[in-house]
Amino acid sequence: MLFRSVLLAVQDPARIETRFVSTALQLASTLDLPAGSCTFEENTCGFDSVFEFLPWILNEEGHYIYVDTSFAKQGEKAVLLSPDLQAEEWSCLRLVYQIATSSGSPSDPSRLNLYMRFEDESFDRLLWSAKNPSDSWLIASLDLQNTSKKFKILIAGVLGHGNTSSIALFEIKMTTGYCIECDFEENHLCGFVNHWNPNVNWFVGGGNMRNSQSALPQDHTFKSELGHYMYVDSVYIKHFQEVAQLISPMTTAPMSGCLSFYYQLQQRNGNIFSVYTRDAAGLYEEIWKAGDPGNAVWNLAEVEFSAPYPKEVIFEVAFNGPKGGYVALDDISFSPVHCQNQTERPFSALEASCNFEEDLCNFYQDKEGSGWTRVKVKPNMYRAGDHTSGLGYFLLANTKLTSQPGYIGRLYGPSLRGNLQYCLRFYYAISGFLKMSDTLAVYIFEENHVVQDKIWSVLESPRGVWMQAEITFRKPMPTKVVFMSLCKSLWDCGLVALDDITIELGSCWSPEKLLPPPGECTFEQDECVFTQERRNRSSWQRRRGETPTSYTGPKGDHTTGVGYYMYIEASHLVYGQKARLLSGPLRGVTGKHCLTFFYHMYGAGTGLLNVYLKKEGDSEESLLWRRRGEQSISWLRALIEYSCERQHQIIFEAIRGVSVRSDIAIDDIKFQAGSCAEMEDKSQQSSGYSEDLNEIEY
């Protein structure tokens, strides 16, 4: 498989392309590369192939490393591991890569994954993944938030189907700063791309490039002909309102602050220079527009930029005709502090959320009366506890106690800024009503409480099951979220429970949120990295909804109420028979690990649920945690704290009890580095119903 050589941005009458030339390679090889970077000229710069997998091959002529099907089979993996790195300041990691395959779209394509491996975590964090083949080099840009912890970068290439499948890495570069920053002196333009238009495009200006018919300026960075910048010229315009777009890399970590850049305008018959943001769903928002061009000099622009979820920055120029002049752009930078004269407080998801364990947080009720009460239910076989842990507090609207029909209980959330997209998530459980329609509704109130807009309401729901609701909304004015419980008549009232409210920026259904969190498994898509010693009717089963046997098992999963969980079906096992679910291999690290999960053990004949630690090379397993017999009709949270410096696995073992009413279920497994202490709720500790915490060292 042939791969092209070095990346350089060049001019073209129609568009910006990325091409590779040997002169750029020679220049790159003479520069001192920052830590975590490599151009693969003569060696791999401290990046090593992991012995257990395929090796990455350094091309004989330099320029790149690769793995392909000439010496490997479909499904085999090559893993590249960096030396120890640190990013005490915000950094940008850029990867120049290519995935190539034979013609057609294979059902099982090759894949390139990039992970971050922290020294104190037993799992790797997936930062980025790509599988689309290309006949040219592509650039991925990843923001790395500053951290005091050491880490390694792990790059895994998995070969897909095809006789000529190959994966190659041309360059890895880690630099201090943000990925949306650029002075356009690098040959790859910092990952910025031009949205191609037949008549008007952004080009590289400066240096020896003189293709424009306009009198272009010197660049701003070096203030000489040696430097480079981007420009768009109206000379090729053929139609009214032709548009050129220069698009930044997508942000990959939350950021908020001041975006600044330098620009020049030459307006003869007019042009419009604007800056937009665009999220993963394609939603545009204008954040800046040029005013009077003034003199033909470099002008500084500063604009507030907030990207709590992935966004692109788009520099757009619209021309009215071929005499619209030109626009030049240089030295894009970002600062995490506000621009001058900007003091608006940023949105805080923490302040807008509440699990009601200690109080109502920033939520409040009508002054006329309190329709919602903060309650706690002792775990038992007849009534579900809260959603957070099964043992804590939640809000309850008991409309049976009302004295008049049409009663409404309102719960107001904190004030939210206008013109931002929000994702509201919460859990609710309803029981006692003959008709559930509109027993719980969510409204958006403007700050003056004059305008209200219903954005969600209950239609039907399983009775007494915690259900998750997700709502995406956006309003131009400052608003508040209001939860309303309703009793339509004295003959049809019941209980409405509410818990674990979160409000975040962005869409609830954004593609960037589909990657599973590291170290977590909700079983919504599959069994994650868990495996079983055998698979048959007596194994752990992935299921949604109620279990087949009455008076045992959950009515729904813990994650959403309508999703998936893992369980044993006791009617398929005999008394004392075991089912074992094994995690994938976990790295041994110094310090403590915290394993949390939710379990459901309801039924008169319930047996045992055990959690074991199995260290690599040992035949014996160590018991970390155990529950025996019926526990609650609710999902309960388990916290297990342990230490292990060797590679290991966690094993969930369920043992069938004396009768068929012995279903056992687990859900929402999460591995975390560090102590479990901060996850224990003070209210649970003081009430006497606190969870047991196992601490074991090996």
Automatic annotation (TrEMBL):
<protein>
    <submittedName>
        <fullName>Uncharacterized protein</fullName>
    </submittedName>
</protein>
